[in-house]
Amino acid sequence: MDWYQDRAIIKFINDRPVFRQMVKFGLVGVFNTLVDLLAYIFFTRVIGWHYAVAATGAFVIAATFSFLINRYWTFRVSGNSIKTEYIKFVLVAFGGLLWTLLFLFILIDKFYWHDLVAKIFTVFLVVNWSFWLQKYWTFKAK
């Protein structure tokens, strides 16, 4: 790939602020998905926790990183109350946790999916739901 193609991609992203935000959110999402999955694997495989407890622990770790990185890097929010944003973020994230636990229960206990397959599938569903709420409710510019 030539150097100007790389530059054209960067120019394309920079000329479209919402698209740039989506790319950043996606990168944060990939990072947080890895954090979530690694924590889940650690909790279930090393410590031996039940999948529901492991998913909750992994959620807490990933959600904390997600809030901080999205607030300061993705959405670059300033002037809003960090306390209010954090409460909104936690509410959305907790809703995501409830969706995650529901989907895991259904897929693992009712349909007998392998827990890691169910977890990966669930992550893709819940991340989409979470993105739109975080963008237009939690980190909405005032």
Annotation keywords:
mainly alpha, single chain, globular, 142 residues, 5 helices
Assign an overall shape.
globular
How helical, in percent, are the residues?
over 70%
Category by helix and strand content: mainly alpha
Number of helices: 5
As a percent range, the share of strand residues is under 5%
What is the H/E order? HHHHH
Average pLDDT number = 88
Word description of this protein:
- Helices cover 85% and strands 0% of the residues.
- By secondary structure, it is mainly alpha-helical.
- It has one domain.
- Helix 2 packs antiparallel against helix 3, helix 2 runs antiparallel to helix 5 (115-138) and helix 3 (51-74) packs antiparallel against helix 4 (82-110).
- The mean pLDDT is 88.
Task: Please outline the helices and strands.
Blueprint: H1 3-14, H2 17-47, H3 51-74, H4 82-110, H5 115-138
Helix pairs in contact: 2-3, 2-5, 3-4, 4-5
Can you give me a brief rundown of this structure?
With 142 residues, the protein is mainly α. 85% of the residues lie in helices and 0% in strands. The protein starts with a helix and ends with a helix.
